[in-house]
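Quick one:
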Amino acid sequence: MATALGFSAILMWALLALLTARSGAVPPLQMNALCFAIGTLVGLVALRVRRVPLSVFRQPPSVWLLGVGGLFGYHAVYFAALRNAPAAEASLIAYLWPLLIVLGSAMLPGERLRWFHLVGALFGLSGAGLIIAGRGGGLSFEGSHGFGYMLAGCCALIWAGYSLLSRRARDVPSDVVTGFCAGTALLSLPAHWMFETTVWPTTPGEWLAILALGLLPVGAAFYVWDYGVKRGDIQLLGAASYAAPLLSTLVLILFGEASPSWTLALAATLITLGAVLAALPMFSRLLARA
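Output:
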């Protein structure tokens, strides 16, 4: 159940590219502030419905540093990476985080890295590379963009570290993610004022896209991901995360924002094989029960 909830975050992240494309010309940090504010409201409503007391937010400073640092740090550094390097190359480097989760999970209590976890993650990385290269017209790493590549690598380290350390902090309720979203929104606002020019959506469709972003990929997704990495199969979730760029591209094709290709078919095959390999223990358990 927890692993399935974690995978639902991957499904929601598949909508990120489409909704971002439909949200107009709102700059990244302003978008961050808007979406995480909506994500905070999602959490507050859930707390109210489930009658969770606000005392749940009484957590050690280390928990707040992990949560807000993970959410805000990843997005801020990712936007900076895209400003200092081509999007295709930066995105591929940033997408090393699922592989880092699979590798890093071997250091977690009760976890063990097996060959099929590693091979599955490498297949997924290869598939993601094909998709990202296809979107960007190919990959061409140049030394002049070294700073941007370094920032993209930091993105991968931040999100992998956040996910793995969340597993170690499994006693912290996922309800606290509401506070993480609020902190991220509050930090994004002054950063936007310092580095960007405010641009508001101009049509109802753009406002709806931002609302959907805040409700799903930049809202509910972080709550279920937190629960999944704390309670579910973190190695399977890490390998399965490579489905996000594949599903994202399929959604773009469905809505006319991209075109199908043989490269996409090959990428889909690699990512599917990678996920199946990483899930071998789960299939074995199912067969044993049958």
